[in-house]
Amino acid sequence: xxxxxxxxxxxxxxxxxxxxxxxxxxxxxxxxxxxxxxxxxxxxxxxxxxxxxxxxxxxxxxxxxxxxxxxxxxxxxxxxxxxxxxxxxxxxxxxxxxxxxxxxxxxxxxxxxxxxxxxxxxxxxxxxxxxxxxxxxxxxxxxxxxxxxxxxxxxxxxxxxxxxxxxxxxxxxxxxxxxxxxxxxxxxxxxxxxxxxxxxxxxxxxxxxxxxxxxxxxxxxxxxxxxxxxxxxxxxxxxxxxxxxxxxxxxxxxxxxxxxxxxxxxxxxxxxxxxxxxxxxxxxxxxxxxxxxxxxxxxxxxxxxxxxxxxxxxxxxxxxxxxxxxxxxxxxxxxxxxxxxxxxxxxxxxxxxxxxxxx
Length: 359
Ligand code: SF4
What we know:
CATH class of the largest domain: Alpha Beta
Strand order of the largest sheet: 9-10-8-7-6-5-4-1-11
Low-confidence stretches: none
Largest sheet: 9 strands, mixed
Number of domains: 2
Distance between the termini: 32 Å
Number of helices: 15
Bound molecules: iron/sulfur cluster
Shape: globular
Helix content: 25-40%
Structural class: alpha/beta
Number of strands: 17
């Protein structure tokens, strides 16, 4: 049994030009059918009633109508009595007081808003349908309604984005004094509109400069970089995302979601027709102990704590430093360790180090 659940809402009110996630344009009829099928999928799973975190992502959960959001949250109600964190993603242009009242009614206590950039020209280039005033308004209504655990996402390495543009975006979100900020570097996916239009990624050196500038700036502003792409004020680490990085089990519900229970990982179909025919699972993968040890290493080393050595021994019956003696000996200066944890000194080198673990 898992203590964490991710639910994917596959609808958006418009499609961003960089996006390759599992999404489709919102329409009332299909989303009604999807909700009906979601109820069936939930019934078919043996979900622990005492979950500790739920994360509703997308897509855009706030693209649903008021009635549909009520239907969606009602489906999860019986699993919420012991929740410590209940997050929903929202877009600034389609969150409003009434939707926030519904969130509050169902116990949602954390909202993650897709900001992406401060400048109207960059937002328009991405086909985002909000401006920074919408973000300011959304944050202020959330606070007025008592939701203070707010996370804002920004993108960097956007076509034509300068270092100053990105600094301006960071300053704008920091000025809102939210407790959590996530930064994602744009990848130009072949199937996205950007990919099809032949947009090229930014120069790698500029991308690295943006990241380094952001890390230094946010740390100076009191944010702790607790994971490679995530920054929080003390006490506001995302409990749900920590479950992924600690390699805990989690349920994945709906189109395009993934889950992991014990040594089984599964990916749900991204095809709506298949989903509506109850053909939920696209891939089911049985993980070997070696796979799981490596995946736990890969995920945990992303965090400031690194590998929890006792947890590793408890889960796999093996000593981390023995299993990975070769890569640890190969890069003796790359890690810091005590009895409890082993972490990477410079997380920017993580990918290179992980290759050695993979060997
Ligand atoms: S980035 Fe988010 S809002 Fe934009 S199309 Fe993708 S899932 Fe939808």
